[in-house]
Amino acid sequence: MNLINELFDVIIVGGGHAGIEASYILSKMKKKTLLITYNKNKIGEMSCNPAIGGIGKSNLVKEIDAIGGLMGQIIDISAIHYKILNSSKGEAVRATRVQIDKEIYKKNINNKLKKLKYLTIYQDEVIDLIIEKYCIKGVITTKKKIFSNTVILSTGTFLNAKMFIGLNSYIGGRMFDHSSSGIINSLSKYFKDIKYFKTGTPPRLEKKTINFSFFKEELSDTINSFSFFHNIREKKNKLKKIKCYLTYTNKYTHKIVKKNLNKSPLYKGYIIGKGPRYCPSIEDKVINFPNKKNHRIFLELESLNSNIIYPNGISTSLPLDIQKKIIHSIKGMENTKIIIPGYAVQYAFLNPKKLKKTLESKIINNLFFAGQINGTTGYEEAAAQGLVAGINVGLKLTNKNQNYIFDRSNSYIGVLIDDLCSKGVNEPYRIFTSRSEYRLFLREDNADYRLTPIGYKLGLINKKKWSFFKKKMNYIKNNYYFIKNKKIYIKYLPKKIKNKFIKKKINKVNLKNLVLNYDILSKNFTKIFKKYSNKININYIKESEIILKYKGYIKKQKIDLFKFNKYKNISLSKNINWNKVSGLSKEVIEKLNKYKPKYLNQAYKISGINPSSILSIIIYLKKNIKN
Known about the structure:
Elements: E1 7-13, H1 17-28, E2 33-37, E3 51-53, H2 57-67, H3 71-76, E4 79-85, E5 95-100, H4 102-114, E6 119-123, E7 126-132, E8 135-141, E9 145-153, E10 162-165, E11 168-171, H5 182-190, E12 195-201, E13 204-206, E14 216-218, E15 244-248, H6 251-259, H7 282-288, E16 296-301, E17 308-312, H8 320-328, E18 338-340, E19 343-349, E20 367-369, H9 379-398, H10 412-423, H11 447-457, H12 463-485, E21 487-489, H13 495-503, E22 508-510, H14 511-518, H15 526-531, H16 541-567, H17 586-595, H18 600-604, H19 611-626
Parallel strand pairs: 1-2, 1-9, 2-6, 9-20
Antiparallel strand pairs: 3-5, 4-5, 7-8, 8-9, 10-11, 10-19, 12-19, 13-17, 13-18, 14-15, 15-16, 16-17, 21-22
């Protein structure tokens, strides 16, 4: 492929989840895009667990989908197991987790990218950047110089990466893949605070050597879509929905880990990078939670045509012989074979505070960063950043003064970007619903309501999807007013609730009253809704009920935000015993003691301190002021 004389609008370095999303968005925006990857067959590779979503993370993917991104679409045609997390709780903290067939996911990603008119995929390794007068001009690969107006670096865990198995180390950012070390020299000339993080993965196990009868079965929930636009997607998912399995470590497992810490590269100090707090290795779990008798292991099949099981929950970098002992200590896995050993990866990242909220560098013009190179962890966070970088590169190429900044109030994408660029990171960042002060509004179910109109204005939502969205919103609006105003006979109510109204001699009751006070969902009123099918759309009753249910809570949340703005400049005494402040986690107390903020607003700017923690501090301060 001769690219020497070509000038691209943008070059994207890295074919992971950030690079994929950026490529898709920029092609939609009709920008001449070159995606450079060292191995075309690894585009869309799921390096860690074969699942997407979870608490906070599913909100990101829903938002990516709502605004016109790719990940949600590919999930729906690659999914083999759906799970609704926190199903007994409110919609604001509910989350979807989807297990993916890794091989089919990659195939579907590649098929989609190959069809994009404005995208060229080139297999090579970028070894240097072309920078002139603090402006990016292109890249140098092992074979040629390639010029472009903008560059997006989305190198994942490959930047100057090193892998560890026991006390042995290997150059590489993933098993069987090498490290991207060339561009670190270019970057280090301009970015003086390059640091390292660590991630890890568990050993992959041979399915046929596992006795699953000892484990708890986890069946797939009865949903078949993640994307808001699943009704109009081109391809349907006909894949078999499989079982996952749940088991636990035990005292023998923990004894093996403790006995062999002298062989751990992490505990021997070989690894300098800090690992993710919310996805610790089995070594960290055993040491940091000494009183915990067991730790959960979730067994997931990597692909329908594969014999490989991913044991989520026992990430480790201990030597292979010790990993075998750990696995064999678990009932049902006494004879299980390890196909690929677990390992740790230490990789370089750049301080995201050096980025604008468009993800463009503040130091080098037209150079954008997306994904784990910014200190984040997870497929979902990477994809969200790829989307943000892609949108803003596209807008800047159209008009250098144009951009789109995602706001904290309209999306978890906005929370992610604001946290990174304003607070920075001191450990691998992952999104949580607790990080948002608007979390009652930023729910999974309404991501399209919040972001699809923005996607349409940006040209990322086509007319077919826009028409589908407008009809849906109209149905929800009509349903909302129906529920708000309609009275029904109590004979349609469940017996327990009906008896309460019989005692009060009430014959009819308002649907709104039932939704707000008795948490009755639409399934109880199927007959009633069918009766009024000319006025409502039963497929969207649930969405209308959620809006009604959360209206009061959102109003209260706005009052809490007002409290924060009122007290944000209040001074914090050096003598505050943070352990006495109710509602603060161990992590937050640790950071408050370390950084000793003088004002409440300074506390909020500390990475890892979320809005609910700030509210707990305000309540504590108000009580002490009164006393």
